[in-house]
Amino acid sequence: MHELSIANSLVETAAEAACDAGASKVTVVHLRLGLMAGVVKSSLEFCFELAAQDTLLEGSRLEIEQLPVEIYCPACQEVLELASVQWFHCPRCDTPSDDIRQGKELEIESLEIETE
106 in helix, strand or coil? Predict the structure, then answer.
């Protein structure tokens, strides 16, 4: 389960940023997660809770924004959302494209913190 190592990294990164900001506690971690990031959302949520124990993030919420896969279509000259990650063709004109513009993200967008 690689979600545990990902959760540990998220907690470590968030705790470091929170310390730098003078936080006494992190209440919410906002995460952007692409559908092609190779991470199971429910597993990450479970592992995050475990990883956060005995840290500034203990008891915090992990808010995950799931991002769809978007590709650039050279024929339409537009970025369009894929209906399925199994078919990398423009949903409008059916042109194949491997130019992925969104969907691989795994990034902390922001933290909500408390200070003393």
Answer: strand
H or E segment at 19?
A: helix 3-20
Residue 77 has, within 13 A of its CA and on its CB side, a CA count of 0
Cβ neighbourhood burial of 91 (10 Å; 0-12, 13-18, 19+): middle
pTM score, two decimals? 0.89
CATH of domain 3-68+103-114: 3.30.2320.50
- The tens digit of pLDDT for each residue in 54-79 reads 999 999 999 999 999 999 999 999 99
Question: Cβ contacts of residue 62 below 8 Å, gap of 6+?
Answer: 10, 28, 29, 31, 44, 45, 48, 49
Place of tokens 């003078």: 22
Amino acid, res. 5: S
Which residues share a beta bridge with 111? 29
Question: Order of strands across the sheet with 106-114?
Answer: 61-67, 25-34, 106-114
Amino acid at 42: S
62, exposed or middle or buried, with CB in 10 Å at 0-12, 13-18, 19+? buried
